[in-house]
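Section 5.1 Outputs to date
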Amino acid sequence: MKPLPPGLVAVDALHDYDHVESRLAASGSDDARPFVTVAVPTFRRPDLLKQTVESILRQDFDRRVEIVVVDNDPDSTGATELTAALPELAGAAFRYYVNAENIGMYPNHNRCLKLARGEWVSILNDDDLLKPEFLSVIFAELDQQPTLKGLISRKEVLDERAVITGKPSSPLFMAGYRLWLESYFAGRRTRRVAPASLFWSTVGNLAGFVFRREAALELGGFQLRDELSADHWFFIRFSVRYGLHQHRAELARVRISRNESMRPDTLRSFIAQGVRMRRAIVGHLTPGWYARLEPMLMARERFGYLKQWGVDLPKEEIEREHQVQLPTYRPLVYHVLRLVLRA
């Protein structure tokens, strides 16, 4: 295993909330040794949770799948509602836990890791979905590449916002964009996502990612100091330590709706974590001169938040906070640079 650069070193965050009990509120047929656990951290979204769990139940997969739901609402009645809506859970390897207090988003991800029994784990947000072939396609590849510690699929986007901000991209642009994404695979089913690639962008959230549980435990789980970008930091650490690989198939669906991501303070946190992440890997996982690219990437993030969420973060505030001068974002320059640098 490769050592992590100093800025990526993590602590063991798995036991931070051991004093908070997770009460078993419902269960199906017990299975102490499932092959894979699909864990769903949830908080006050019962209708979406039903759809998410249903997508797990509909997996076309012939090995034992465990479903673990960990509810962060201590007053939740979600277990009763879910089992009434999906009576087939009674015959599934299923457990529904309720935390005695709200421990926060990523600590709840760590609780999912601790409660999972499978050798392999996938964490699925309570508003995201899996396609029926997700597990069968992923494990067909993992069976052929037994040295891999994890494999993530590409994802489809379900944009359910009542009002979509910004001008929609043209069909011609989207066709070109898809061809560009496909070029990363060069005709192969999977590709390696190098740490240097994650300098430029993320592979999205955890939907569609299957990984060995022991690898996540060894990394210390999800770190509280990484804030709402903890999944991206997890991907980077995983990429350095074990190698991160992506399947070309779109096997998960990620829902976009009005949520916390629209808040200016949340978006500023994403920018700050992006700055911290890039500074942690420059000179270690990328050439030192990559530091010069940081203002352009910050300008791109600001542009993206305006286009996707309609939130215009004041340029002067960002420059003052991070002691940089943001250039005008030029998409053509950005994409040509990525192409030239094979990023």
